[in-house]
Amino acid sequence: MTRASRFSFLAVVTIAAAGTTHASGQEAETQKGIALAELATLAGVIVLAQVRDTDYVYRREFPVAGSAFLRVLIPYKASQPMDIIEVYEAGLHAHECYFPTPTVFEEGRRYLLFLQEDAEKPGRYRGLPQGCALDILVAQDNSYVLRLPVTGIELTDSLDAYRQSFEFSDSYAVETDESLNPQQREALMAGAWIMPRGMEYLYTSGVSLSVVRQLMRTGNQHQ
Question: In this predicted model, what pLDDT tens digit does every residue of 180-190 receive, in sequence order?
Fold first, then answer.
């Protein structure tokens, strides 16, 4: 899946209307959003991980079933040591848990994952009903940052209070006219979430992962 198609799954209208939160849910309870602390309670596994590969079945260029394999960078909540984690998804729905596949020339995207073990296959994991992944970028000081605006899970946390400006060294902090349509670009520009640089657009802000960790309040903290 391309970066553009990944973004197109997400309702950009909510970015302009709701600032740092993103409403992609259709179910009544998930449309209300969820706090990071509640996500941390519901999830059996919380890890910072980077996509290595995927094994998906595609229809019309979109994944409809299969697994992603991610390298665990930091385990925040886990019952056992993890190196590679398999995340399975099937079907198309509001909070589907598919990941873009990096090419041989790219490093994989990084995500903060909220997962439950798959009841049908121990050792394999699936996303929560509210969503499974938040985009994480690497700043120039090599720290991890939750990218704003948040997409993937509608959060009720007031992240504006923790918003900071960052310069990112991450290739996924860059968008182009090909990866964003005009509506998406205008919404992100209006919120000062991106800034132009030549023919590209750079993400400008986020929330330090150390702050996100505090908001999760898991008690199993690493940095």
Answer: 999 999 999 99
First to last CA, the chain: 30
Q: Strands, DSSP E only, in 60-185? A: 62-77, 84-90, 110-117, 124-127, 133-138, 144-147, 164-165, 174-176
* Residue 220 resides in a domain: no
Q: How many domains does the chain have?
A: 1
Q: Coil, helix or strand for 119?
A: coil
- State the pTM of this model: 0.85
For residue 223, being part of any structural domain is answered with no
Q: Which has the closest alpha carbon to 4: 208, 197, 180, 215? A: 180
Percent of the chain with pLDDT over 70: 83
In this prediction, residue 31 carries a pLDDT of: 54
User: Cα-Cα-Cα-Cα dihedral of 188, 190, 191, 197, to 10°?
Assistant: 60
Q: What is the CATH number of the domain that holds 31?
A: 2.40.50.120
Residue numbers of the domain that contains 171: 3-215
CA trace torsion 156, 157, 161, 165 (10° rounding) = -90
| 160 close to 33: Cβ distance less than 8 angstroms | no
Q: Is there a domain that residue 222 lies in?
A: no
Per-residue pLDDT tens for 77-88? 998 899 999 999
Residues in contact with 28: Cβ distance below 8 Å, sequence separation at least 6, in sequence order: none
User: Within 13 Å and on the Cβ side, how many CA atoms surround 61?
Assistant: 8
Residues of the chain short of pLDDT 50, as ranges, are 1-30, 218-223
